[in-house]
Every structure is written in structure tokens, then in C-alpha cells.
Hints:
Protein name: Transcriptional regulator
Helix content: 25-40%
Number of strands: 8
Radius of gyration: 18 Å
Order of helices and strands: HHHHEEEEHEEEE
Number of domains: 3
Strand order of the largest sheet: 1-2-3-4
Structural class: alpha+beta
Distance between the termini: 69 Å
Oligomer: single chain
Amino acid sequence: MPAKRPTAPFTPLDFQLVLLRRMADHNPGLVEDARHRLGVGVADMREANRRWQAMLHAPRSRSALARYRSVLGEPESVTPRRIGDLDCEALLWSVPLWPELRFEVLVAPNGVAWNEWLVRAPGAPGPELRTVDDLLPWSCTVDEAARAFAPVRPLEGTAPTRWGLAFTAPDASGAARECAAEFTWGLLQRVAVRERP
Length: 197
């Protein structure tokens, strides 16, 4: 019986492929361009996602925070944050594919990670979001859209890594439009727009 080959470590590159795999459902063209920049093929992306899912669902899987530390290394920053009544820590890791963004994990005092998504890097300029036309795929994060078009209403995502926001935004003519924006890993994927009644 042949010896079992050791599995290669799961790397930051593999993690970026996991992020892209979920985004491919909405923006295959952008994902393909990103894959080419990373120098990997579709099979590499599928394999990275398969391995990630295996880690998530292993009988003795590590905590989310331990998993991210093992894959991404030590975070570039750890910042105390208060959200409503909850004190937590925000851990940030760089993501080479999106140098202006960071992968953020919010960790409760008991060590449980309760939110994991892409956010704008501290000090990086955010997009100017004034109209529906500014809402291009991959142009903004959940919190940027929420601030630009407040008030917003959260929408249930179609998967654990997906979020949605409903809000009103003007189009180029200034007419109010009802918008439903979909985000994957915190990054805008698409917006459905209709005229406000």
C-alpha cells in the first residue's frame, strides 16, 4: 500500500481562492481576471475551496480564530471595538489581491469569532458613493454602502458568507431608486434597482 502523501499547508493564496470561489457565482469575469493575476487555474480554486470546507467541517476542527491564524499568520492589527453592547476585538489581515482592503474577524470576549469579512484598510481612501451608478461590483464594502445610503435595512444572505442591504439611492438623474445590494465576504457583488413607487 503506497504511503500517504502529506497535504501541503493551506496558504494565504489558497484563502484568497476561497474568497474568489464564492464570488464567482455573481462575477465570473472579475474572478477569472483575479485568478490570472494570481497565476492559478479553476481547478486550483476548486481544490482550495474543497480543502477549506473540509477544515470547517472536520470532526475536531479548530476555532475560526485559530484557523485564520494558522492560514494567514498573526494579524497586522488587533483593535478593541464596541458594537452596541458588545465589547470585541477586530483582527485585521492583509489580502494581497485587494491591497486596499483587509480581512476582518470580530472576536467576542469568549474567543468566538462572530463576523468575518472584507473591510477597507485603515487610512485607505474609500469610494465616493453618491448614486446607484457608483455601486459597481467589488467597489465597496458592506459598511461603506451602509454609511453612504443610510438608512439601510439588512437582508438575509443566501449563504453564510453573503449579506444583503436594502436602501434608497438616487440615480444619475436624481430620481430615487429602491436598491437591494448583495455582498460576498463583505464585498459588493451586485445591485438590483427599481424605481421607487
